Amino acid sequence: MRDLRIVFMGTPDFAVATLDAIIKANYKVVGVITAPDKPAGRGQKLQESAVKKYAQENNLKILQPTNLKNEDFLSELKSLNANLQVIVAFRMLPNVVWKMPKYGTFNLHASLLPSYRGAAPINWAIINGETKTGVTTFFIDEKIDTGNIILQEEVSIEENETVGELHDTLMMVGSNLVVKTLHLIKYDKVITTKQPEIEEKAAPKIYPETCKIKWDASVQTIYNLIRGLNPYPAAWTLLNNNGEAIKVKIFDIKKEIINHSFKPGSIISSKNELKIAAKDGFILIESLQLAGKKKMDVKSLLNGFTFQENASML
């Protein structure tokens, strides 16, 4: 049996669940590496990462390097005398960091590798209409998300599931998978599997242009895009209302696949309903956010907003 001394690296809420699971499973965490504090919001106040807040509450040693190759950071990391590193939602590590511990460095990734390597695997699984995804633990190597697989667990994607809901499911399944992985390493029972070298769907970073709705696409394509970006970063469109273009983020929706003669982007509204024409049906909007306003349900919008006769989504 090995006496594990763990350094944990992560930044967002997704990583906190795993760090919490490691602590509750009574593993020794000798240090936590997380992103530097960043200015955010209107006042540009410094914001601490979710992982840093958790580490402070649990009296864990915290390092926040801006440069992972910095000599001072590397010597401090070495002084922690860790023999294993666990990575969840962090950044790419230089060789000198991931090769440091005796028992290696493993990562939790929110997909069934080799599918959806990259920064946004949860979003892209839904955007592409997948019916299943999962989580993978694997030992880090020189490339991104290509190392030998330790464990995987499959999770089904429900037809109406949003990325927010799937994120929370994978967060909990993933944290349990990390604890199972630690158990295997502790008792020296790891058997890894090489990732197959096949062309798989990628999960690149999401940019604002990725999130723009194209209303001439099919209802299902638009439906998957919107739920794959709900609640963050949110799909958007431009509302052309009497010559004024207003940016609108769209969140909760339903779909209706039906033949019609409306031009894609046409708005059909009543007192209680707002729907937008797509190529083969309609997207029924239930909640949205106009630029400069708070998110609201569609009934609240329809009570105080007038769509001109020729209004459309661009």
Overview of the molecule:
With 314 residues, the protein is of the alpha+beta class. It has eight helices and 18 strands.
Q: What's a concise summary of this model?
A:
The chain is α+β, with helices and mostly antiparallel strands and 314 residues long. It is built from eight helices and 18 strands. 25% of the residues lie in helices and 27% in strands.
CATH topology of the largest domain: the name is Rossmann fold
End-to-end gap: 62 Å
Give the structural class: alpha+beta
Tally of contiguous helical segments: 8
What would CATH call the homologous superfamily of the largest domain?
Answer: Formyl transferase, N-terminal domain
Physical arrangement of strands within the biggest beta sheet: 5-2-1-6-7-8-9
Residue runs with pLDDT of under 50 for 5 or more positions: none
User: How would you describe the shape?
Assistant: elongated
CATH architectural grouping of the largest domain = 3-Layer(aba) Sandwich
Mean model confidence by pLDDT: 95
Radius of gyration equals 23 Å
Question: So what's the CATH class of the largest domain?
Answer: Alpha Beta
Share of helix, binned: 25-40%
Strand content: 25-35%
The run of helices and strands is EHEEEHEHEHEHEEHHEEEEEEEEHE
Main β-sheet: number of strands, strand sense, barrel status?
7 strands, mixed
The strand count comes to: 18
Descriptive key words:
25% helix, seven-stranded mixed β-sheet, alpha+beta, five-stranded antiparallel β-sheet, Rossmann fold, 314 residues, Methionyl-tRNA Fmet Formyltransferase, Chain A, domain 2
